[in-house]
From TrEMBL:
It comes from the Bacteria. Residues 333-459 form the Mur ligase C-terminal domain. This is UDP-N-acetylmuramoyl-L-alanyl-D-glutamate--2,6-diaminopimelate ligase. It comes from Ureibacillus yapensis. InterPro entries: Folylpolyglutamate_synth_CS, Mur-like_cat_sf, Mur_ligase_C, Mur_ligase_C_dom_sf, Mur_ligase_cen, Mur_ligase_N, MurE/MurF_N, UDP-N-AcMur-Glu-dNH2Pim_ligase.
Length: 490
């Protein structure tokens, strides 16, 4: 696409060079610039793109985009210098336009909330695939087309940067994908990563305190989440959550509420709960239906009803949707059971917020046969307020707690754990083993037949960040190694 064509509908000022050049892509990482790309100068937390203009030009940049108007005069370059009021918005706009707006040709569902985004996106993906639709799911756990993970070379974020997202969507469209399910992180929304995604349905799950340091305050975090409302044509909202209700009240557009409580368009009532499944009744404008869900626990019911209502709003019948629900499975690292010969119930779960830890412990508390043992810690350099609260929640349900390390980053994990332990009840049994693999091994070694062990916080993750080093680490691998050692000893 010609630069002149790209800039036609966008407020900008241009100096120098020719705008009759072909633009192939948009890039804000100078070392990643390819011949024909526009380089976007962005001031970040650690650096300033201004320092890297020469690298971008050497790599073949055909124009440089800036946000600081003063630089229009100070930068003397051989290529056009383009001033735009907001480089993040421009990156989204131009990535969509250069790739010919692939999202417009598909149905796009974007999901936000503090907890459950990955789970609900995978549920929606699984339901649509079961209904014979081609679907791409993009989020924390990676990119999946029709349930199969696609490995691509891109910066792995929950909400992808537009420069990657629209390229991926263009390829997906070519492969016949009709539905796109995106996780909308608060950071992604506030950085305008989803501005040009033609979102058909915006789904609001819940809101709890999280990412406060990233945004500066809880109010700003809330405001970032709320941005999804204005980006979406239609909303599907959790009627049991007060923030979601407020978003719904303020939005003058088509909306549907879901929930376990009253005054919703899609209500899920729990009729009976077994060890691994629940029998539920769905009441909606489309009628009533009793069916089985292959999970127990309130948060799972909330996630299932969020997925059912979204797919129903896309126009599918309740009968076919509920049939598919019976075959749903949880994404990697979400209450993932690890089989073993020691008669232990071992689970890995991505719970790293107070609400998530409560949800998963309440669920396990229903099925635990003997002691409930929890191995966890909290991440360093962020959300310090949640440590004491997570300690209190763990202590309410756990018979034994192993405090360990969970991406301590620049903080001392011992200090992090002291802040968690401040929330424990005075009688709480606990031990601190900072080496996470060792903590997992000790928990398994000391457990007795019938015990349940929850290893919380890292879920599907494959790294542990200690200081500035990113070390390879996986909870599921560590469990398998520990089980091997313990069974050999027996
Ligand atoms: C807070 C945030 O949005 N950070 C992103 C941001 O970093 P930054 O603004 O600090 O950039 P910087 O490193 O200071 O560099 C400034 C500029 O110089 C450029 N540069 C820099 C160095 C260099 O050698 N060459 C170069 O060209 C950079 O590309 C950038 O344009 O720009 C970087 C490059 O585009 C991103 O990698 C980085 O995301 C990081 C990886 C990140 O983890 N972001 C997290 C906070 C995030 O977005 N997470 C959410 C999930 C949160 C949730 O669960 O809600 C997500 O959606 O994944
Ligand atoms: N509806 C829910 N309410 C509370 N907790 C939940 C809910 N759904 C899932 N969880 C808990 O949160 C954890 C993370 O779930 P999931 O990855 O789906 O959420 P997420 O919003 O994508 O998280 P993140 O933003 O951190 O990537 C789960 O492992 C589970 O412990």
């Amino acid at each position: 696409m010609q630069l002149a064509e790209l800039l036609k509908e966008w407020p900008c000022s241009v100096k120098g060079g020719s705008i009759r050049v072909e633009v192939k892509g948009i890039e804000d990482y100078a070392q990643g610039v390819k011949e024909g790309d526009l380089f976007v100068v962005r001031k970040g937390r650690n650096s300033d793109g201004l320092k890297y203009i020469n690298i971008a030009l050497e790599n073949g940049a055909v124009g440089v985009v800036i946000e600081d108007e003063k630089q229009l005069d100070s930068l003397k370059l051989s290529v056009p210098v383009i001033w735009v009021p907001n480089v993040l918005k421009f990156m989204s706009y131009s990535a969509a336009k250069i790739n010919r707006y692939p999202a417009e040709a598909m149905q796009v569902i974007a999901i936000t909330g503090t907890n459950g985004k990955t789970t609900v996106s995978h549920f929606i993906g699984q339901l649509l695939y079961a209904l014979h639709k081609n679907v791409i799911v993009i989020g924390t756990n990676g990119i999946y087309i029709n349930g199969v993970e696609v490995h691509l070379d891109y910066e792995h974020l929950t909400t992808l940067q537009p420069k990657h997202l629209h390229k991926i969507l263009k390829v997906a469209l070519r492969k016949g994908v009709e539905y796109v399910v995106l996780e909308a992180s608060s950071m992604g929304l506030s950085k305008h990563r989803l501005d040009d995604c033609s979102i058909n349905i915006g789904v609001f799950l819940n809101l709890a305190e999280d990412h406060i340091e990233d945004h500066g305050s809880y109010e700003k975090y809330k405001a970032a989440k709320q941005l999804l409302s204005s980006l979406s044509e239609q909303l599907v909202l959790n009627g049991d959550d007060s923030f979601c209700r407020t978003v719904g009240l303020q939005a003058k557009k088509k909306k549907a509420y879901f929930g376990l409580g009253n005054r919703v368009d899609y209500q899920l009532q729990l009729l009976a709960e077994g060890l691994v499944s629940s029998t539920c009744c769905l009441q909606s404008k489309k009628g009533q239906k009793v069916f089985s869900i292959p999970f127990v626990g309130e948060h799972h019911l909330q996630n299932v009803i969020a997925a059912i209502s979204t797919v129903s709003e896309l126009g599918f019948g309740v009968e076919e949707i509920t049939e598919a629900v019976e075959k749903l499975s949880l994404p990697k690292g979400r209450l993932e059971a690890i089989e073993n010969e020691m008669n232990l119930d071992i689970y890995i779960d991505y719970a790293h917020t107070e609400a998530a830890l409560r949800a998963v412990l309440q669920t396990l508390n229903k099925t635990v046969k003997r002691n409930l043992i929890v191995v966890f810690s909290c991440g360093g350099d962020r959300d310090k307020h949640k440590r004491l609260k997570m300690g209190a929640v763990a202590s309410k349900y756990a018979d034994m707690i192993y405090l360990t390390s969970d991406n301590p980053r620049s903080e001392d994990p011992e200090q992090i754990n002291a802040q968690i332990a401040a929330g424990f009840s005075p009688k709480q049994h606990y031990e601190m083993i900072l080496d996470r693999a060792k903590a997992i091994e000790t928990a398994i070694q000391n457990a007795q037949e019938g015990d349940t062990i929850l290893i919380a916080g890292k879920g599907h993750e494959t790294t542990q960040t200690i200081g500035s080093a990113e070390i390879k680490f996986s909870d599921s691998e560590s469990v398998k190694i520990a089980l091997d050692k313990c069974t050999k000893k027996q």
